[in-house]
Write a structure and sequence with these properties.
single chain, 8-stranded mixed beta sheet, 449 residues, alpha/beta, 15 helices
Length: 449
């Protein structure tokens, strides 16, 4: 049991380390739907947020309270009223919102104060700081509907929030704001979280919601044939918003998407919609390559580019397991440093997940593609094809007619992509002299059109 745990834990923890380094010192705004708290998810969410903060992330937590307010209203025999996707907050609803906010703030602070031995919170010290960081204004009358005490964010005290974060506190915000005259307004959690994220230029805005994310085709239900789109470029998100019906409730596809788009346009680079129903969804999204929900970004985080000296360590770490099992010929650090500008890499969010090198033989108008490697974490997602296309492009750009590979284990992958087996005698003379006849690598060639 212990040996199995060690065998799985060590490589897993090493794979997570790049994300720990990447996110240290960054600022995340996390909006938690009141439904998550009503579903009993607060203890596990608090544990995950405490863990994230312990790894150097600055956290602003904004809680919702939609179901809690509705429960208070029912207890008082009062009906919850909505219009244009917003609550109409009369005097009774305002009192219920204030009661719900007070109770939830108490529960959240209690959740972050637990530190029993043998629990994830053991030894943690999470200081929660709240305050009047939000100035609000009334929604007013829209299409003849008077929203009364419902408000919109007028201003965020970004300086005050940053100062609290820099002091090591987690900032907790309720969806309330006050006018300069002291009048209280009920706000939407989603608008507060978005406004705060834009005002402090957070690195991430994360919504823990009732929905699993945005489907590849948002007009259809999520299914095996219509899975969650884990990475949604801003231009595509805008297109979907234009086609979807205006949202009226949180389960509508456009409800959280509209706030992610607004934050993205306001300079927040990464905006996430995660399901609170999945235990540990925050950790899975932040510290695992593919994540679990939908991330709206200004442009694709994955890039295929030529390598530089800063990539040497990442390439060595990537290819070392394949050299050890004999899939690749061993290359020393000196060789890779010398040839680094021959390499192309696939980088995702600062981490290298694939590489390949191009060694030209101009006299024979061909080149060798070597060290083609894709991390096991991203195999089957097309990174190999992306590297192959970039290598082909580089070869054409220098006037070559073909590329070739030497392989002992992946012949079929190359043959499916247009390579043809040839005799080792086909190799350029300079390469033929270095051919290892004991290894018996197959030689495959692809003509470049």
């Amino acid at each position: 049991m212990s040996a199995v745990f060690n065998f799985t834990f060590v490589p897993w923890f090493r794979s997570v380390a790049p994300y720990i380094h990447t996110h240290r010192g960054k600022t995340f705004v996390v909006g938690i739907a009141g439904e998550a708290i009503a579903a009993g998810k607060l203890p596990s969410i608090a544990q995950d947020l405490a863990l994230i903060q312990s790894m150097g992330v600055k956290v602003v937590l904004v809680h919702g309270f939609r179901p809690q307010v509705n429960e208070q209203l029912r207890a008082k025999g009062h009906e919850a009223r909505y219009s244009h996707g917003m609550r109409i907050t009369d005097e009774v609803a305002l009192d219920c919102a204030q009661e719900a906010a007070g109770q939830l703030r108490y529960e959240i602070e209690a959740a972050f104060s637990q530190g029993l031995p043998n629990t994830p919170m053991a030894g943690s010290t999470v200081r929660i700081l709240s305050g009047n960081f939000i100035t609000a204004r009334p929604v007013g009358v829209v299409d003849g509907v008077d929203f009364q005490h419902s408000g919109l964010v007028r201003k965020v005290d970004a300086t005050g929030i940053r100062r609290a974060l820099d002091g090591g506190s987690m900032v907790l915000l309720s969806p309330f704001g006050f006018s300069p005259t002291g009048e209280a307004f009920n706000l939407a959690m989603e608008e507060v979280a978005t406004s705060v994220a834009v005002s402090i230029q957070a690195d991430k805005l994360i919504f823990l919601t009732e929905v699993p994310g945005i489907a590849m085709d948002p007009s259809q239900p999520v299914s095996e044939d219509n899975p969650i789109d884990t990475e949604l470029p801003l231009d595509v998100a805008r297109k979907w918003l234009a086609q979807l019906s205006p949202p009226q409730q949180p389960t509508d596809t456009a409800f959280y998407l509209q706030h992610c788009v607004k934050a993205c346009e306001g300079g927040v680079e990464r905006n996430h919609i995660l399901p609170f129903a999945v235990d540990g969804s925050l950790l899975l999204e932040i510290y695992v390559h593919d994540g679990i929900g939908t991330m709206v970004i200004d442009e694709k985080l994955e890039s295929v580019r030529e390598a530089g000296v800063d990539d040497i360590g990442g390439i060595l770490q990537l290819i070392e397991p394949f050299e050890r099992d004999g899939t690749l010929v061993k290359r020393s650090r000196t060789e890779i440093e010398r040839d680094i500008h021959q390499y192309t890499v696939v980088e995702h969010d600062g981490v290298i997940f694939g590489c390949a090198a191009l060694y030209p033989y101009p006299e024979a108008r061909t080149a060798e593609m070597a060290a083609l490697t894709v991390s096991p974490q991203s195999q089957g997602q097309g990174d190999g094809e992306k590297l192959l296309k970039r290598i082909e492009h580089r070869a054409r750009a220098i006037g070559l007619d073909s590329i070739f590979v030497l392989t002992t284990r992946t012949m079929h992958w190359f043959i499916k992509r247009g390579f043809q087996p040839v005799s080792p005698d086909w190799l350029p003379e300079a390469r033929k002299k270095k051919y290892n006849w004991d290894r018996k690598s197959q030689v495959l060639v692809k003509k470049l059109g």
